[in-house]
Amino acid sequence: MNMAEETAQLLARLGVAKAAYTSGDLAVTSPLTGEEIATVPTDSPADTTAAIKNAKTAFSTWRSVPAPRRGELVRLFGEELRAAKQDLGRLLSIEVGKIPSEGEGEVQEMIDICDFAVGISRQLYGLTIATERPGHRMMEQWHPLGPVGVISAFNFPVAVWSWNTALALVCGDPVIWKPSEKAPLTALGCMAIMARALEKFGDAPEGLLNLVIGAGDIGAALVESPDVALISATGSTRMGKIVGPKVAERFGRVILELGGNNAGIVAPSADLDMTLRAVAFGAMGTAGQRCTTLRRLFVHSSIYDKLVPGLKKAYQSVSVGNPLTGEALVGPLIDKQAFDQMQDALANAKEAGGKVTGGERVDEGHADAYYARPALVEMPKHEGIVRQETFAPILYVIKYDNLEDAVRWHNEVGAGLSSCIFTLDMQEAELFLSAAGSDCGIANVNIATSGAEIGGAFGGEKETGGGRESGSDAWKGYMRRATNTINYSKELPLAQGVSFDI
Ligand code: UN1
After folding, report:
1. Coiled-coil region(s) at which residues (predicted)?
2. How far are the Cα atoms of 262, 297, 404, 415 from residue 461, in angstroms, in the given order?
3. From ligand 1's centre to the CA of 264, what distance in Å?
């Protein structure tokens, strides 16, 4: 069976109608081999406007469904995902090149957020607030916000949608999803899985969940519509710089999850064996294509020669190739453009005095598939290309002598997503986590930057966009807060002691 046939079989098993992947104008290729695996019909801006209208209508009823009942839909979706985990995971491997455990891991992340959101559906708490006026009560309520536009990227094509969707649904908001054009098949799979949950649920309004597939004009229709209360967008900082101001212009709300130039510090007391394994997954896992991928490593000079040779060996020996036909830990880059950007960055680093291990193309016998050996680059200084995110498996390594320098370099980049320190010294660990330490949305000790659990709020500062998704109280981003003051007395005392007797 060739890959197109397997893809068709998986999509059919997931419940996607044949016309949705056989009769379209958008060709979908697999990065594993570069071959075409499906064609998908695309939507127009007018289709997007229609989807927004449907979502708006759905909102008028969904917002009044009790939140725990809304949670029931998410619970059913989680059940359906459990049943479809293997098929959707496999489709993820084919469509975006993930190794099987990461493909299934992404689906597990979806299941986890469903469980989390079901719990949250009974915990949309507001505060009771002490009032200064006698015979009064003050409280806050959280109400549904409105339709949510989700714009997702190729690298976590379904998990990021599910973080947003599971929370949006329990919060009372319909969703319109624009997936990456590089990953429409897994999106179709998700909608088919959701359709089964909707059927079991019974009385959800039409237009609660919408999918629009296409290019930037579709995204623009979402971003510009005053009926889309919240835009949750994941992708490059360049994209965020366009989306952010456009939504701000109409006073819409955004959750932006943009670039990361994530770094780690390896201190003298670090457990080097553990550090090596953590760095290997953080920097080479998912072929360096996570927004949380470890991209810079500051290693104390006293242990540099103990850690870096071992790391180089790991870079030289890690298995790179098609993860579905072999045991590779590093799959392909998404496309030629990603490979070219990686090569440009490496050339640039070499010019600046960088010593490169790896980085070359690995021939898997497919002209249009781009496998690259991850690159470890020893850099003399924290300057130039090191300060830019390249969405590829490149790890820049730099020696440091005192922690203040390392923390300063750490924070000296545009993005502020994820960070880590490897140390057994609690003073160093606490300093790194303190207000004067890492400036990122995620800061870890003795684990690397990627692979966050859904229970924590996910997102980052500065050019990462400032949004928070997934766990903790990220649900508040999908609701509006109303402060209510109730006078149950027979008097009318004014706040701040103001008198206004007429
Ligand atoms: C992303 O790359 O957009 O922390 C999300 C992680 C995953 C999510 C990454 N849980 O690496």
Report:
1. none
2. 12, 20, 21, 7
3. 16
Ligand 1 pocket: which of 262, 442, 450 to mutate (most atoms <8 Å of CB)? Answer: 450
Distance, CA of 112 to CA of 81 (rounded, Å): 10
Same domain, 103 and 213: yes
Residues 214 and 285 in one domain: no
Distance 281 CA to ligand 1 centre (A): 13
Range of the domain at 396: 262-445
User: Catalytic residue among 95, 102, 106, 257, which?
Assistant: 257
In a domain, 277, yes or no: yes
Does any domain span residue 397?
yes
Instruction: Mark whether 159 and 58 lie in a shared domain.
Output: yes
Spatial CA neighbour of 171 closest among 254, 74, 70: 70
* Strand partners of residue 226: none
Mutate to test the pocket of ligand 1, among 151, 163, 458 (most ligand atoms within 8 A of CB): 458
Nearest to 331 by CA among 105, 76, 140, 99: 99
Work out the widest C-alpha separation in the chain, in whole angstroms.
88
Q: 467 and 480 in contact (C-beta within 8 Å)?
A: no
Q: Are 140 and 41 members of one domain? A: yes
DSSP E strand boundaries for 188-306: 209-211, 230-234, 253-257, 262-266, 294-300
Section 464-479 average pLDDT: 98
pLDDT digits (tens, 9 = 90+) for 487-496: 999 999 999 9
| Residue 52, token pair as written in the block | 């927004």
pTM: 0.97
5 in active site:
no
Residue 93 lies in a domain: yes
Q: Tell me how far the alpha carbon of residue 450 lies from the centroid of ligand 1, in angstroms.
A: 6
Specify the ligand 1 atom closest to the Cα of 234.
Answer: 3
Q: What confidence category does residue 1 fall into, taking pLDDT thresholds of 50, 70 and 90?
A: confident
* Cα 454 to ligand 1 centroid, rounded to whole Å: 9
Domain shared by 171 and 192, yes or no: yes
- For ligand 1, residues with CB inside 6 Å are 109, 155-156, 160, 234, 290-292, 450-452
pLDDT tens across 100-109, in order?
A: 999 999 999 9
Ligand 1 atom closest to residue 290's alpha carbon, by position in its atom list: 2
Task: Provide the domain count of the chain.
Answer: 2
Query: Considering the domain boundaries, does residue 232 fall inside one?
Result: yes
